[in-house]
Amino acid sequence: MNKNLFQTAVGKSIGAIRAVEWGKMDISEYNYQYISRLLPFLDYYFRIYEDAVKRLLQGKVSEGYIVDFGGGHGFLSLFLKQLGLRVIYCDNNPLSVKTVCRIKETVGFGPDVVIEGSVPELISYCEQHQLNVNYLIATDLIEHLYDLDVFFAGMKSLNPSLQMLFTTGSNPCNRYKSNHLRKMMKEVELHYFLPMREEFIHKHFAELDEKESKELAVRTRGFIYSDVAIAIEAYIRGGILPEPIDRYNTCDPQSGNWMERILPLKTYRTIAGRNGFRVKFANGFYNADKGYLGLSIAVKMLNWSISHSGALGRVGAPYLILQVY
């Protein structure tokens, strides 16, 4: 793939997106609001897409499919399709799936396959239709997956030689960003997820007293309801108190969706390694389109420094890139 192809694909994708009358689209309010926040920064996001795809493909494109996993609004799928790739879009949110289908109808191009679901549905569809998947790309997704062991094991069964790339804003090396995300986690845990677990425990384990229920609700931070139930049954049988995941990371107990989970890099390596994959990391970059020449130049210089400083550059990187192979 040459430079001109990428430039053309970016231009056509952004042009098609900007030509859509989003206020008249039959999509959910959630997706409309999400897309509305992205529109002013399309150039930046498509630079992220371009950088990610170049890293993943490394100039070598096979005959198989590429998966846009957790594809959300589907803008990445549009770009992948404009590059001439065979694209599978997969997302477990039915509202996002509907949005992607409507966008494809409106702009006239989009993913070849649209799957509503997650790992099991993706594997099942590919096996049923004998699709050869060689690549998977996911932006702002890996930090939300409930069980990374299940995910990587599933991908290994899909294709033992699968090449994957992830971007995540949950950068453990960037202390400023990590502290900001942890403050958000504390608020969401206190006001939403903890009360949800408390309600579940009161409803399904009425034999527990108030003190036990509250302590168990706190200790099952980061558990989905089924795992909360397993932990409490173990406590009832043998008095074994569950250990919370950690002090900050928390997930929606109903869906298992983590809120910006921050993991050490060695944890990614360990989980990927025990499922037969290796990981290498790279540093993301900031948006240099500042509307003021001096500031734009300064940001470009910062981006150059971050990209050429390896582990040291991660301290200031706005997001991380994980290549899994």
Strands, helices and their partners?
Blueprint: H1 3-19, H2 29-38, H3 42-57, E1 65-69, H4 75-82, E2 86-91, H5 94-107, E3 113-116, H6 119-128, E4 133-139, H7 148-158, E5 163-168, H8 175-204, H9 210-219, H10 225-238, H11 265-274, E6 279-283, H12 293-307, H13 310-313, E7 320-324
Parallel strand pairs: 1-2, 1-4, 2-3, 4-5
Antiparallel strand pairs: 5-7, 6-7
Helix pairs in contact: 1-4, 6-7, 8-9, 8-10
Strand order of the largest sheet: 3-2-1-4-5-7-6
What global shape is seen? globular
Quick one: CATH superfamily of the largest domain?
A: Vaccinia Virus protein VP39
> What is the makeup of the main sheet?
7 strands, mixed
Average predicted confidence as pLDDT: 97
Task: Return residue spans where pLDDT drops below 50 for at least 5 consecutive residues.
Answer: none
SSE string, helices as H and strands as E: HHHEHEHEHEHEHHHHEHHE
